[in-house]
């Protein structure tokens, strides 16, 4: 089947929905919002802490937020991207409020601001401890009300369409690659349909599910990044994987592991060993409020030194009622496994959390492939550099969705549908035995990435990962060529591609910088050899 939409949006988190609402206002054509599960399963909904923006001008300003972002990114962030996000942050907040998102306010009617690691001021807007869920709720309601937006849930994008599918040889040096839409798997017919578009936006989220333990949902398999890479688009900074220092240590829950928000440390939570001893003073003068890369490496080292599988976060010195008020969901979650956080330490450990790299885009969110934009965690705007500053991601998605909307609306009349695109050849079958192999290979990717491409790396570990991923790649591509596409095998292909990109770009960076720490090129004082 061939379907035509002027705007094709792949991904349904804050990035995809913000863009959909922006372009819908202009009334320039039909919009399809495609997501591989349901809208409410996006990574956005898992973001507990909040969204960063300068709103309290009595004490805060753009310059402070810019400086905090550059420091956290180890000074390899793109200054223009940082300035664009910070200065357009307040407008992004206003857009979210207009769409129906609620943020907590104090008795004076002003935003109740939190402070998180790496921030010099209180500038984190939040909704209790489920800010991402509230943003997702507000945007979902707005999108579902919009008659211009066709929502296609449980549809899976297999590949984006370029000249390659017209028989033209496309390489990484081809200067004029164009995107004409995407091949998308329909869950009901089990067939791959051809979606033609004038403009395509990639908003597929992150890559956490390629690791054995992650705060991300299982859907975070890096699909958009892998599809664009296979289409010969530029992908960069993949070595910078942010490990959240504090997810709830619970061996029964690893995909996703339950996040203990950064805001809990901003609130006054103290990191301790299980025996009560503090340790962050050995690593950074900011103690528990140091940036995530420093805290994650410190915890990793303490766990190795003491032979333990977790450390602890302590809020027992805080007022119990205030703790329950600020963190009702965390309180309830911990209580469900027998931990009263007002009286007991919270067991925590680091977990794969956020991808700072991704599809390279410019200030208009344009990728290196014409007519293809990328927004949100799948994109690499340059904002994060070597390490993401806490709560910068949601505001980045809103600001760049606006930039992409303005640019694509200004140029969409220049584009036409390419009706020469062939339909997908879906010959092939799949046996139950092959499904078992796919599940096993997914587990193997997670083990390879966590064991060899984790918080602390070495050339030996990285090359070992490369060798194992290469074997999985060959096996999986051979299987993909002879079976009908399913969500599982497509996700496995993407996970292997993403794992390869993280590993290769980590090998290429011959220094320890930001989130990339290698014992072969140590820059920081922490010695993990």
Largest sheet: 7 strands, mixed
Spans of 5+ residues with little confidence (pLDDT < 50)?
525-529
Query: How much β-strand is present in the residues?
Result: 5-15%
Mean pLDDT: 92
Number of E strands: 16
What is the CA-CA span between the terminal residues? 56 Å
Rg calc: 22 Å
Which overall shape is indicated by the principal axes computed on the Cα atoms? globular
Task: Give the SSE string.
Answer: EHEEHHEHEEEEHEEHEHEHHEEEEHHHH
Helix content: 25-40%
The total count of helices amounts to 13
Structural class: alpha/beta
Summarize the structure in short.
With 529 residues, this protein is of the alpha/beta class.
What does this protein look like?
It is built from 13 helices and 16 strands. With 529 residues, the protein is α/β, with parallel strands linked by helices. Strands 1, 2, 5, 6, 7, 8 and 15 form a seven-stranded mixed sheet that branches. Helix 1 (14-26) runs parallel beside helix 4, helix 1 packs parallel to helix 10 (392-411) and helix 11 runs parallel beside helix 13 (487-508). 54% of the residues are buried. The model is unreliable at 525-529 (pLDDT under 50).
Give the arrangement of secondary structure elements.
Blueprint: E1 2-10, H1 14-26, E2 31-34, E3 51-52, H2 62-72, H3 79-98, E4 124-125, H4 131-145, E5 149-152, E6 156-161, E7 181-185, E8 192-202, H5 223-230, E9 235-236, E10 241-248, H6 263-266, E11 270-272, H7 292-306, E12 311-314, H8 320-326, H9 328-336, E13 346-355, E14 358-360, E15 372-374, E16 379-380, H10 392-411, H11 432-452, H12 459-481, H13 487-508
Parallel strand pairs: 1-2, 1-8, 2-5, 8-15, 14-16
Antiparallel strand pairs: 3-4, 6-7, 7-8, 9-14, 10-13, 11-12, 12-13
